[in-house]
Design goal:
Elements lengths: L2 H54 L5 H12 L5 E7 L4 E4 L13 H7 L6 E5 L2 E7 L2 H36 L1 H14 L13 H36 L1 H42 L5 H28 L9 H15 L4 E7 L7 H22 L3 E9 L2 E8 L8 H16 L3 E6 L5 E8 L8
Parallel strand pairs: 5-6
Antiparallel strand pairs: 1-2, 1-4, 3-4, 6-7, 7-9, 8-9
Helix pairs in contact: 1-4, 5-6, 7-8, 9-10, 10-11
Length: 451
């Protein structure tokens, strides 16, 4: 929705609100005025005809005298007069009003403005007189006044909007130049510069646009340089693969040494401390210190085992990706119960080969590390699918979107390098509804072997 349309809508809503308030106040005043006018007219008419009814019998038969008097009286303002005989026959009814003859106000308006006054009955010898309040002309006057008021408001509304359109057209004219400049930027013309504007706010925007255009032009040059650098890195991809293979080999060696050497040493310390604590000649102080040593050794052993699992989970030795991911999911739910993790494996994810299994596992591991450190997520979903010689991983979270930390970017770049080295692809992008998504696709070669 454009700014011009927003301003027009805002002004229109304000005018409608003003009109609604004015209409409520006006109709309320009109209704009170009609009520007061009809009440006064009815009271005067009742007093007049009451006096005439009291004196009519002095001049002859009351029905005839009153009928003659009413015929000479004619129409009484805002009242309809009817004379009935003792037999219920209508002997006289006052003539209709000629004021704005043939016109009536709309039914809803009549119902809203109607004066609630009951008719008055006056009994005569041999006759009955009915005085019925008639507010139709007063309501019609109120409707005409309200119509004139509405037409005046409508003229004011149209004039105001025409003036606003003219003003906005001149005020927003620099926006057209700005949009043209943005269009040129979208087509890659980063050398465009906008002229200064006489309006201070627009001048700030055009200055900012010019600054951005210069920055984009500089970024374009840097991007070209980056493309050249990327091409050089691609040509040296074999070196990258050798480095990754060396890192994994070192991980395997470290995990084995930690498990075999340090793990056994820590276990021995724990056993010795436990033995000292239970020795019959051990005093209370020695037993307490030995127990503390055993406790520290137990914690150290758990830490060593956790590091060993992070370096090289034992399930990876079997090249069973599903089992490895179930293990990491089980550990995640234990360590981070506040972040839900849902793992779904479809197809046969065993016998994929060590390199393929390791690449997929490291991608999941890196993604979960990013979720824990940067995403502030409450739920993570991991979907693994093996079909048509393709292994796909879809990792989603409902966190704060794209990670911006430099370390996270390096981690994503490392995962992408692993995927490309195996002939696959890796895409990482924010989700439109919130969160972040990592999609890994790897080709599966016969017997899990990769070329």
């Amino acid at each position: 929705m454009s700014l011009r349309l927003r301003l027009n809508l805002l002004l229109g809503l304000l005018n409608l609100g003003f009109l609604a308030t004015l209409a409520v106040l006006t109709t309320s005043n009109m209704r009170a005025s009609i009520q007061e006018e009809i009440t006064a007219a009815h009271r005067v008419t009742v007093q007049l005809l009451g006096t005439a009814a009291q004196t009519s019998s002095l001049m002859g038969p009351a029905p005839a005298v009153m009928q003659n008097f009413l015929q000479r009286l004619g129409r009484v303002r805002a009242n309809e007069i009817r004379l009935y005989g003792t037999d219920g026959r209508l002997r006289y009814v006052s003539p209709p009003s000629h004021y704005k003859e043939g016109r009536v106000a709309p039914g809803i308006f009549v119902h809203l403005m109607r004066a609630h006054i009951d008719k008055t009955l006056i009994d005569l010898p041999g006759a009955r007189l009915e005085i019925i309040p008639d507010d139709s002309r007063a309501v019609l006057d109120a409707w005409d006044d309200l119509t004139i008021l509405f037409l005046l408001w409508l003229a004011f509304f149209v004039t105001l909007h025409l003036a606003l359109l003219w003003f906005l057209r001149h005020l927003l004219r620099p926006a057209e130049a700005l949009l043209g400049g943005l269009d040129q930027l979208a087509h890659g013309n980063f050398s465009v510069q906008l002229p200064p504007s006489p309006v201070a706010e627009w001048d700030e925007l055009t200055s900012g646009f010019n600054t951005v255009a210069v920055a984009l032009q500089r970024g374009q040059r840097e991007q070209r340089q980056l493309a050249l650098t990327t091409q050089a890195l691609t040509e040296n991809r074999e070196v990258t693969q050798m480095i990754e293979a060396g890192i994994e080999a070192e991980r395997k060696r470290l995990s084995r040494e930690l498990h075999d050497e340090l793990g056994q040493s820590v276990t021995a310390i724990r056993l010795i401390a436990t033995s000292l604590a239970r020795h019959r000649d051990a005093g209370p102080e020695l037993a307490a210190n030995a127990g503390k040593i055993a406790e520290i050794a137990a914690g150290l052993y758990d830490g060593v085992q956790r590091i060993v699992r992070e370096l090289r989970p034992a399930v990876l030795e079997q090249s069973n990706l599903a089992t490895a991911l179930e293990e990491i999911a089980r550990e995640w739910r234990t360590l981070h119960p506040e972040i839900g993790l849902q793992l779904t494996c479809t197809g046969d994810c065993s016998e994929l080969g060590e390199e393929l299994t390791l690449t997929a596992f490291r991608a999941v591991q890196e993604s979960l590390t990013n979720v824990l450190k940067h995403a502030a997520a409450r739920q993570v979903e991991i979907a693994v699918t093996q079909s048509d010689e393709i292994l796909t991983l879809d990792i989603r979270d409902d966190g704060c979107g794209a990670p911006s930390q430099p370390g996270t970017r390096r981690g994503l770049a490392g995962m992408r390098e692993r995927a490309v080295a195996l002939g696959g692809t890796l895409e990482a992008c924010p989700v439109a509804t919130g969160g972040f998504r990592v999609m890994l696709s790897l080709p599966i070669h016969p017997k899990g072997k990769n070329p």
